[in-house]
Amino acid sequence: MPTTAFLFPGQGSQYVGMGRKLHDEFTIAKRYFEEANDALGFNLTEMCFEGSHSQLMQTMNTQPAILAVSVIAFEIGRRELGWQPDFMAGHSLGEYSALVCSGVLSFRDGLGIVRKRGMLMQAAHSSDIGAMVAVTHAASDQLEEFCRQASNDTSQVVIACYNSLNQHVLAGHRIAVQSVVHRLQAQFTDVSVKYLNVSAPFHSPLMQSAAEQLAVELERIETRDARWPVISNVTARTYGRQELLPLLYRQMTEPVRWLETMHYLKSQGISRTVEVGPRQVLTHLMKGTYPAVQTCQFDHPKQLEELRAWFDRSENNREAVIASIRESLTAAIIARNRNNDAIAYSAGVILPIQQIRDLIEKLCGNNPSDFTQTLNQIKSLLQSVLFTKQLPLEEQMKITDKLPAMD
Known about the structure:
Elements: E1 4-8, H1 20-25, H2 27-40, H3 44-50, H4 53-57, H5 59-81, E2 87-90, H6 93-101, H7 107-124, E3 130-136, H8 140-150, E4 157-164, E5 167-173, H9 174-187, E6 192-195, H10 208-219, E7 230-231, H11 244-251, H12 258-267, E8 272-276, H13 281-289, E9 294-298, H14 304-334, H15 342-364, H16 371-388, H17 393-400
Parallel strand pairs: 1-2, 1-8, 2-7, 8-9
Antiparallel strand pairs: 3-5, 3-6, 4-5
Helix pairs in contact: 2-5, 2-7, 5-6, 5-7, 7-10, 8-9, 10-11, 14-15, 14-16, 15-16
């Protein structure tokens, strides 16, 4: 069965008109936009569809706008195609979109916190003091050394985003950023630099005051356990609910480790990615890093057809998996019992068999909450049946080997 990661874009992917086609075609999109307008206290829908470029570029507007469109796209796909993520990852702001889609944050709370996050980031340092610049065709170790050389007690520059092997973003005091840029241009003819039109140097030490204020806001928000694993920008690993607030606090001042995130996804067996939200920035980064990984993007109704083919094939795979589970369950039921303990038999055979049947019915539903987790539950219960019946190990393996890999 293909292993799928859902990717959520960050700031810079916004464009005037984003989400309009989804709004026009899907009732659920209209409802989400209406809820966003109500939660934020202004007409986000109008801003996304007809607002000025400069208005949408303001960080406090950009962040809830991208989050709203990303969540809407994800929910449409989930209802239309029944997709179930194996992993979720978002770039900076996109991590919040992933947390909303995974159920950790409510849609309203997600909108509210990224609106506040944008305000805090916007107010932390003016663009006259700080700067961000995208650098391509320069190695990270060389950039790190230049950043160290250009930084001192009053002026700092760091790598804010490790996007790929040859794409990084620097952030910090403008004078320090300019110093690194001058060194790069003086020593390397093939290096490309582009100053970013942002209101503050994100993911740098200059965001410390904003991070501290954001931590207070985050403490007020109700959180829940994730339905699907979300990867942290800070650690490039999945994390639990207890780590949520510390990592989101650190995300403000520490770099986005997107290259490591892609490496981690590949190490976990990811074979395809779906970028949900505006543009295809993360899709291009994945293609450039791992060309063999299938990629697709969704923020327009026309893209559903390509995705439908993907997930229809997954549905066929699901049916094959369910068939193999039924076959293994039948084999376990008819296998000879060597256990004469009636109480142990009831607890270790009869009850697990009924639980397996219930879980199979769950898998047959349109939207099982977690397909992989349910498969692992079935495997554990089936092993309990075989162990309780005291089957020889060789017979147990013949039955369990029919099951697909589930880890």
